[in-house]
Each structure stands twice: as structure tokens, then as C-alpha cells.
Amino acid sequence: MRRSPRSPIAGLLCCCLLTLAGPLWALGEVPPKAAIASAHPLATEAGFAALDQGGNAFDAAVSVSAVLAVVEPYSSGFGGGGFWLLHRASDGFQTMLDGRERAPLAARRDMYLDAQDRFVPALALNGPLAAGIPGMPAALCHLAEHYGRLPLKQTLAPAIRIARDGFPIDPHYRRMAELRVEALRASEAAARQFLFDAQVPTLGHSLAQPDLAATLTRLAEQGCAGFYAGPVAERLVAGVRQAGGIWTQEDLAQYRVVERVPIRGTYRGWRLVSAAPPSSGGVLLVEMLNMLAALPVAPSDAGNTHALVEVMRRAYRDRAAYLGDPDQVQMPLARLTDPNYAAGLIRDFDPEHATASRQTGSDCLEPVTEGQDTTHFSVLDRAGNRVAATLSINYPFGSGFVPPGTGVLLNDEMDDFSAQPGVANAYGLIGGEANAIAPGKRMLSSMSPTFLESDQGVAILGTPGGSRIITMVLRAILAAVEGQPVGDWVALPRVHHQYLPDRIEVEPGALDAAEQKALTRKGHRLERLERPFGNMQAIYWDFAKGRVEAASDPRGLGSALAR
Q: Longest C-alpha distance within the chain, in Å?
């Protein structure tokens, strides 16, 4: 894969950013341990295997990404995409690999509307018509070629072995498969791969994926040509088109990874480095932190959930109005990330009253309540290289469709577009013209892999959770700035607001009775969720104490190790 050319403005930004990042690497300090935090023990194990074989953090990221794609098919996969935020210790260079899916070239902005121009959600969620062109295989090739030390044959070996030999089904797999069992049954190849006799497999059942193992072997031996051309590409396109999809060979041949300059901001002496569009994460995080800095209240205080919610509300409104694919949409990023703009947004903050979000006809659509689809991992190697990566196929088990003979479960990321202005997607997010469907366009995302840097230390973090990702990362950033231990960042209770629906989503145990009563009195509507959400994976390199710590969210079954 060729490195995408940067504009003169992007080049200037990059030079400025290297100046900011410089002190962290110019000191020549290296961490005392390597660390990996991921959503599955087998993925963490594979990442350390890459390090033990002489690889760096970028090689470990290839191995972790690939294994997660095999053992968490409900969260990510080679039929999906993601964002890989990179820091190279030798020169302080930082970039974001954009492996986000693209709309097929035959996509139309009205492709999910019925004859009466009404949005039909099932069309954007189930089956091959819901799938964008995958970016993950290209991203792993790019990562290995430009940043790693080891060949793909080596870094993909654990994933190939697990796909071939199988892994035991756990309770979370069963719960996700039960949620999507009908979509999986609708695809003969998917049912054969992920179910057993058309039923959700029992606990401990060994799930082998021989077709996927064969596809990954081609990728390991031939690089991107093993996926985006040749027999695998032919099977992908044939399977999609026979089932009513619109992919072509040209769609696969045209796919490219794009390197993007990360979004940056500052908050109370800490530097934020986060995902750039087509992720909305970095922009919203900077915008929310800037608003908090303009408020005369400390957002961590027990009574200030109200302030946090009002900040979230305003940022998500801008998400809907302005953000989309930077290659197709002009966005006012300088203004959105300007502290003066944030101060203006929050100037009407009322400590005693909620600000009503503008209601639309789409507000009746209820977003999904699940919060562990998508996945995240964080890596730090002994040289100080680091990776924060968030990967997804969107809804649990994506589209539920596998093109026969490939083992590749396709995403349903087309639902992340705004199929109709003001109409909510599966996560309750509304959008406008900036995120409308267009041929070859990348859909807006909430994935927010993030670095937090200061003279005190460096944090590497992120989480799954659909539209709630950004607010979860915000809460973790605030905990880090306040000096809380890394285990608290990933475990602290969560609340979320995304402008529409106009409500605070409250994780079990997140607010006591008095806080709930106070928020209701201010005019907020609370939605008390039955299940927790998120699955954060974080690492902290403490400069002062010369210590590296890693933590995996207790809500999941992940593994975090520093050694």
C-alpha cells in the first residue's frame, strides 16, 4: 500500500505536532515494561508473541487485530475496518491509519428508502446490501509494510492457527449470537460458520473457521493482493452479488488505507491526541474538554453530572451537523476545536436547568442497548512505540452475511451513514448532509483511539460502545487528569447523552438516588439501563514512578498485562 499524499496544510500541521510530541521521545527514556490490553486473552497472548519474536508495537498490533477478528466475530473482523492511532518512538511521529470501510461505487443516497421515501432500517443492517468495502486487511498490510519488523506470515500465524483449530465459545459469544441468530441463519455460509445445526453453540463448543483460515493464509502469503484481488476477491464479489448486494471487483481494487493527521487538543496541562475524521471522536473530545475548561465547575464532582451532560449534548449536536468523510466533505475543524468556539457553545449553561435538545420525528427511534460490539486494544513496547486501535463491523456480527468460500463476515457499516437527514441509525444517532451516502465515501464513526500525554506520563486508551464510545473516553480522560489509577479509568460507572434522543443513559450503579433525583429536578430524562456498556482497554506509562500499568474493563473478558 502506498502512503497517501498529504496536503501542504496537513504537512504543516504534522510539523507542528512533532514539535509538541518531541519532549516525550527526545529525552531518550524508554518504558520499563511492554504492555498490551485487549478484549480477549488470546489476542493479548498473540501480541506478546510478536514482541517476543523481535517485533515492535506495530507488529503486535497486527497480531492482536487479527486474533480479535477470529475470536470476537461479533465485534470486528476482516470484513470490517477500524482506526489505528500510532506513535513511533524513534522520532515522535504520530499518525492515524484510516482503515474505515467505503461505500460501494454503486451506492445511492436513497438505497435504504422505500417507495414512500421512508427509511427501512433492516436494509442497512442485514445482508450484503448493508456492507461497505472492508478496510481491515489493507490496514494490516499497511501497518506491517510501513511500521512493523515482522512479515505477515509471522504476525498472522496465531490468527490462522486459531481459525483453523478453533476456540471455545464463551457466554458473551452466546449472548451476541442469540441477538443476531436470525440474520446469521439467513446466510448459509454464516450459519455454518457461527452456529451449530442452525442453533447458537453451547458453552465450550470449539468454533473452527476453516474458510477464514484459508483466506488469512492467502493474505499472509500474498499481502493485500491475497484479499483484494484473485480468488478471494472473486468469491467475495460473487457471493455479495448473488445475494442482492452491489459490490464489484473495482470496489475492492480501489480500496486504499489513508494516513491522517490526528486531532489534538489540551486540557489542564495534558495533550490529547485522538482520531481524526471520518471519526467524530477526536473532534468531539476536544470540543467537550474545551467546554469543560470554560466552565467554573469541576466536572468530576459528584453533583456535576449535569455539567458533563450539557457538554455532551452540545458536542453531539455538532457531530450531526458538520462531520463526515474528509475526502468528500468540507468541515470547519479549526472552528470546532477552537477554545473560543467552545466557550461560546457553553455560555448559556444553566447550573439549575437542562437545555432541551431539538426534537425531530426521528426521536422515536430507539438505539440499541448493547455496548460491547466493536473492540479496542492498546499496546506499548519496550522502545516506547504505542498503538491505540478501535475496530468494528458495526452491529453485533455485522450484516450476518458471509460470502461462500471466504469465511469473511461482512460489516453493516452502511448504517453509519445518514440514510435520510434527521433520521436515526441503529445507535440513535442522527446525521445530515455531511454524512449522506455517496459512492466511495467513508461513513462517519464514533471510534476514538486516544493518547493522553503530559510530563507526568502517557495514557493509551479506547473502548467499544457504539455512539457511547466518545463519552466513555471523555470520562476516562478526566479520571486520568485527576490522577486516578488506570484500573479506575476502565471501571468507573458511566452516563451518556448524545443530543438525540434527549435523555441521559445511566449504567447500573452509575448514579445514586439523590443524584438521579437532582438531575430529574433540573429537567433531565433518565434512561436506566439494565446492562453495563463499554469494554475499555488502557495502558499508563508513569514517568515519575518509572512504572507501566495496564487495565482491562471488568465488564468484559479481556486481558491486560505489563511485562
A: 64
